[in-house]
Amino acid sequence: MSAARTAAVAAVESHVRAFFEGHPVEAVEHDPRVLVVGPGPRGGGWTYVTTGCRSATAGQGQDVEFVITAHVRDRRFVELLAVIARHHRGGHRLGPEHSLPLGEPWVPGSACDHLLISLPYLYGPGLEHCPLPEGHARLLWALPVTAAEIGYRRRHGHDALERLFDEAAIVPTDPFRASVV
Questions:
Q1: CA–CA separation, 82 and 139 (whole Å)
Q2: Which residue in 1, 37, 163, 179 has its CB near the most CB atoms, within 10 A?
Q3: Spatial distance between the Cα atoms of 9 and 55, rounded to a whole number of angstroms
Q4: Three-state SS string across 85-108, please?
Q5: At CA 105, angle to CA 101 and CA 109, rounded to 5?
Q6: How many CA atoms lie within 13 A of 138 on its CB side?
Q7: What are the residues facing 37 on neighbouring strands?
Q8: pTM of this prediction?
Q9: How far apart (Å, rounded) are the C-alpha atoms in residues 42 and 139?
Q10: How buried is 96 (Cβ within 10 angstroms: 0-12 exposed, 13-18 middle, 19+ buried)?
Q11: Torsion angle of alpha carbons 65, 70, 76, 81, nearest 10°?
């Protein structure tokens, strides 16, 4: 690992640990490394965060890391972040308002079979913006959504879909939530 990548990984990990002070945080060695944040003062769910998800254009001022929130601790979510990271690094630079089909339900029995890349609304800009030695990283949320919700977003726009989420008061960690469309 290059010195720049090592420094970026350390900065993201420090940022996440400080943000989630009072939560148990475990680093899981993977590519990229994933922090698993347990329940605590900021919420009762589990949060998974990539560290070192550098794309080919990283180091040019802004890196991107990905966050998943879930109702349980499960290795599946670490593996899913690895897939997102490979997709991002493989030339499909992901940012807010992008989506990915999962090819299967988020968890068995869930209607959510896509991920919507969004701002980490559960945690706000305090988690989203992470200073790095060579710029900064944005921590973006990979929110599980349904195919119908992605279709609605394509027809009516991202903001319209987010308004439906707000109106329905979705619980984003509920894998069995109903589609808002």
A1: 15
A2: 37
A3: 13
A4: HHHHHCCCCCCCCCEEECCCCCCC
A5: 160
A6: 16
A7: 25, 47
A8: 0.93
A9: 16
A10: middle
A11: -10
115-126 as b/e, with b when 16 or more CB fall inside 10 Å?
bbbbbbebbeee
pLDDT at res. 76: 93
Q: What is the rounded CA–CA span in Å between residue 106 and residue 113?
A: 5
- Length of the chain equals 181
Show pLDDT as tens, one digit a residue, over the chain (181 residues): 788 888 889 999 999 999 999 999 999 998 889 999 999 999 999 999 999 886 544 555 578 999 999 999 999 999 999 999 988 888 778 999 999 999 999 999 999 999 999 999 989 999 999 999 888 999 999 999 999 999 999 999 999 999 999 999 999 889 899 999 9
CA dist 34 and 53 (Å) reads: 10
| C-beta separation of 94 from 87 below 8 A | yes
Dihedral sign (CA 94, 157, 146, 49): positive
